[in-house]
Amino acid sequence: MPLPKMPSKPATLLAVKDYPKAEPGKPRLTVASAKADNDVEDLISGEAVPAPKAGARKKAALLASPPAQAPVAPPPAPVAKSTRPGKDGVVAKLKDNDNGQPHPAKHKPVEINIKSSASQKADKAGATKVFVLDTNVLMHDPTSLFRFEEHDVYLPMMTLEELDNHKKGMSEVARNARQVSRTLDALIANVGDHEIESGIPLAKLGNKDAKGRLYFQTKLNAAALPEGLPSGKADNQILGVVRALEADQPGRAIVLVSKDINMRIKARALGLPAEDYFNDHVLEDTDLLYSGIVQLPDDFWDKHGKNMQSWQENRNGTSATYYRVTGPLIPSLLVNQFVYFEPRNGEAPFYGQIKEINGKTAVFQTLRDYSHAKNSVWGITARNREQNFALNLLMNPEVDFVTLLGQAGTGKTLLALAAGLAQVLETKLYNEIIVTRVTVPVGEDIGFLPGTEEEKMSPWMGAFDDNLEVLMKSDSEAGDWGRAATQDLIRSRIKIKSLNFMRGRTFVNKFLIIDEAQNLTPKQMKTLVTRAGPGTKILCLGNIAQIDTPYLTEGSSGLTYVVDRFKGWDHSGHVTLARGERSRLADHASDVL
Predict the structure, then answer these.
(1) Alpha-carbon gap, residue 521 to 514, rounded angstroms
(2) CA distances (Å), 573 to each of 135, 403, 449, 583, in order?
(3) How many CB atoms lie within 10 A of CB 534?
């Protein structure tokens, strides 16, 4: 049945009397019939429409259900002072413009990857498939040959030809192409000609998860493509191989795997099954990405505060209050995750961080209030809840790896630089600040830049220069000479390095900031994070909604990769900064543009 027409005017809430009512001759759609017909009722038209996908139904249910964690006044049950965090163990309420409402992270809509119909039919039947790999899949992930489990892999001759064309050079693509060539050479070693036609076991090199076989194109496949498609183009020849395989093996699912969107569109237009490469995706939906923050429900202290213990300790020169609580919510939490509870009945809010988890028992630590001027970091104070959480991570010497996500203007770079200067120049915990970023231009490249490595990188570090100007103006009492001397001192402790020369280096007692980390692949991120030596702290800053690297998505970015893999480690932390603090113009532009 066709979908109803989209309304031309914005939807409004209907009054109770305006809702459609059941008619005597027209059966009303019930939950059982909706499940049976896989339809739902349109509240405006009263007609049944096709139900959304499973993921959309889940998200719609979450949006439609009342927020279970909205801070409301707790019941007036008497609670002993020793069994519930009071004002003595809680930081002051942060400045918040929306009355303490939580700020969900804003992400651009993400395309949920769906398998082709041929793959879905093969999965239901339990049959193995043949995946025809495009060249860009192998150059994106050199180990993709072994990522298809029990299914077979087919390499067209044109794929090998394009691999040969891209093997020269020192780029990441060239290195991956050479690695694939070495892997293929090891697979076909000591293999006869008849064994190549019957398929080479992919588990030959010790990859036990790869239970399928590798096939090469050993003969010319004459498959007719529509007229007008140039036969000399590599993409069209690969499409011809897929069509010929379907003719040779009519009872088997033949699926083209490509990272090229236009290649997949062209294949689907020709009636050929085509899919994206899923294995490098950390998450299908980045709304499910670990945020590092959780709001405690209203009845948290009633369920978890019965046998609560509290004490105070002095760590890293600051005194903090600790609470040991036990309850059913604890197993769903992670170490170094931030929790908050903001009642609306005038009581002091609770901001804490989870330090230990043992079964259903956890230890909460109260935070230092960096929104107060007495705790400012290089003249910078936290303007919202998430920034206060981020500064608690940045200023904690026991946390070696910090990731900060957020849209433009949330203060990622400013907080990182302020924390770095305070710990390099004031507490002297680190020797110097090292700043690096991926050199991916927004528009057209302006060409080669003159000068040394640091001079070549200086145009890419405009964001840090802007933030340094803000930080260096914080001292209003110093004169022109004092500010000039401060600027020279700060510049001498900040080094700008290029990613191209990081391999093989070891940084000792350094404060390393990786900016625009969303443009890094998981392999490049591993190369950078493993540079850390004793006493080094690494910060990864980025916005996964602004990815400029080809073939990288929000789900496969290196920043998403490290956030997901490092969550729950005792010496790492993550915070998603949700609200912009740059200016009212920038905040409005982020919302409406």
Answers:
(1) 13
(2) 37, 7, 36, 27
(3) 8
What would you measure as the largest C-alpha separation in the chain, in angstroms?
89
For 159-220, give the secondary structure using H, E and C: HHHHHHHCCCCCCHHHHHHHHHHHHHHHHCCCCCHHHHHHCEEHHHHCCCCCCCEEEECCCC
What does the pLDDT look like over 2-22, one tens digit per residue?
A: 444 444 444 444 455 554 554
Query: Which element (helix H / strand E) includes 541?
Result: strand 537-542
Q: What is the mean pLDDT of residues 587-591?
A: 78
Helix or strand (DSSP H, E) at 295 = strand 293-295
Rounded Cα gap, residues 310 and 322, in angstroms: 5
Distances (CA, A) of 404 to 142, 259, 267, 495, 543: 29, 28, 39, 21, 9
End-to-end alpha carbon distance in the chain: 35
Mean pLDDT of 479-487: 65
Lowest mean pLDDT among 77-91, 274-288, 356-370, 565-579: 77-91
State the DSSP string of 389-434: HHHHHHT-TT--EEEEEE-TTSSHHHHHHHHHHIIIIIS--SSEEE
* Distance (Å, whole) CA 292 – CA 334: 9
For residues 569 and 335, is the Cβ–Cβ distance under 8 A?
yes
Residues paired with 354 in a beta bridge:
364
- What are the tokens at 302? 């009633």
Judged by DSSP in three states, 532 sits in strand
How many residues are recorded in the chain? 593
